[in-house]
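Run log // design_07
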């Protein structure tokens, strides 16, 4: 308990403070990209899915800050593949933070 906000723990106060500091640095019209990577030996090959949602949605349990999610990228494959999935995920995340790339993927024509 704290004296400033009864009912909130010190940890919750730190989280709220961190979130508000981050939110001040993010433009109001921002959208998030969620990149998930993993390996499973039951898979025989590498699979990647890149999804652009028609409407951005809030996913508060996934994103660190409350901004809507527009893109999902899921990459999975066997651990025997000679790939570093985490580094590929970092590369995709970096691309999705580039202001030149975003318009290119935002206005892609759906395949189906």
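design_07 sequence
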């Amino acid at each position: 308990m704290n004296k400033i906000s009864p009912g909130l723990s010190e940890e919750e106060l730190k989280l709220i403070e961190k979130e508000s500091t981050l939110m001040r640095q993010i433009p109001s019209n921002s959208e998030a990209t969620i990149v998930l990577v993993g390996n499973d030996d039951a898979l025989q090959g590498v699979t990647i899915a890149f999804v652009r949602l028609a409407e951005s949605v809030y996913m508060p349990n996934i994103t660190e800050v409350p901004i809507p999610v527009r893109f999902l990228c899921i990459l999975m494959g066997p651990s025997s593949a000679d790939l570093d999935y985490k580094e590929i995920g970092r590369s995709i995340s970096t691309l999705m933070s580039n202001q030149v790339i975003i318009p290119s993927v935002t206005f892609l024509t759906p395949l189906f």
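Helices lie at 10-25, 85-96, 101-106.
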